[in-house]
Amino acid sequence: MLEKWEGIVLRTNDYGETNKIVTMFTREKGKKAAVARGAKKTNSRLSGVTQPFTHGFFLVQGGRGLGTMQQGEALSSMRHIREDLTKTAYAAYIVELTDRTTEDGETNPYLFHLLQKSLDYINEGADAAIVTNIFEMKMLSQVGLRPEMSACAVCGETEGKFGFSIRENGLICHRCFEHDPHFLPLSQVSLRLLRLFYFFDLERLGNIDVKEATKKELRAAISMYYDEYAGLYLKSRRFLEQMERMDHVFSVKEESDDD
């Protein structure tokens, strides 16, 4: 049976000398894989459409085991992502997080839309770090994690000074700081952004201008939360952390050269 899927390429694996196994996240079927015969050849009609991050339509012939990709039509090649190392690194993390937290064949149109919009925003030039933070916060509910972001996770108060508690699974107010001596004393700007990213509609994303210090706080809080509750080891995230450390080294060097 021939099926038509709208999908985004998450990854490819070599299969023989000329073929690829293409893993996609599709609107209709969730995560699915198919063999793209001859796709490793540069002149193959499937070569371009099976590149990572590509959003397109795919015709797949079903059967026992893996289906076979017959045709592909790119809706967006995400060219600007692939031409920029930083954008590629953030996009790779987003698709690996999607891949590692989903099961084959589980339909999830909401997650498909979230993935598509996030890659579109990065491809169009939005701040890749912030788009990734939003994606991470939106993904929490998809993997069964629900931090308390509306009120204090301990006493339920909505007014006061707040921090973020990994132990208490969410916001913690100044009255309850003693419950977690290791809470993160984030700036109020970072806390507001965490709440915003968790609740707001990604479609409403406008121009983003976040200070580097705030980005660092957001990255620390989200990474610590994922480490504690999700238990994922993602190669793409480690690469991002290495890039961020290198950026810091270069920025410090530039500042010292200017003095």
UniProtKB/TrEMBL annotation:
<keyword id="KW-0234">DNA repair</keyword>
<dbReference type="InterPro" id="IPR022572">
    <property type="entry name" value="DNA_rep/recomb_RecO_N"/>
</dbReference>
<dbReference type="GO" id="GO:0006302">
    <property type="term" value="P:double-strand break repair"/>
</dbReference>
<comment type="similarity">
    <text>Belongs to the RecO family.</text>
</comment>
<dbReference type="GO" id="GO:0006310">
    <property type="term" value="P:DNA recombination"/>
</dbReference>
<dbReference type="InterPro" id="IPR037278">
    <property type="entry name" value="ARFGAP/RecO"/>
</dbReference>
<dbReference type="InterPro" id="IPR042242">
    <property type="entry name" value="RecO_C"/>
</dbReference>
<keyword id="KW-0233">DNA recombination</keyword>
<dbReference type="InterPro" id="IPR003717">
    <property type="entry name" value="RecO"/>
</dbReference>
<keyword id="KW-0227">DNA damage</keyword>
<protein>
    <recommendedName>
        <fullName>DNA repair protein RecO</fullName>
    </recommendedName>
</protein>
<comment type="function">
    <text>Involved in DNA repair and RecF pathway recombination.</text>
</comment>
<feature type="domain" description="DNA replication/recombination mediator RecO N-terminal">
    <location>
        <begin position="1"/>
        <end position="77"/>
    </location>
</feature>
<dbReference type="InterPro" id="IPR012340">
    <property type="entry name" value="NA-bd_OB-fold"/>
</dbReference>
<dbReference type="GO" id="GO:0043590">
    <property type="term" value="C:bacterial nucleoid"/>
</dbReference>
<dbReference type="Pfam" id="PF02565">
    <property type="entry name" value="RecO_C"/>
</dbReference>
<dbReference type="Pfam" id="PF11967">
    <property type="entry name" value="RecO_N"/>
</dbReference>
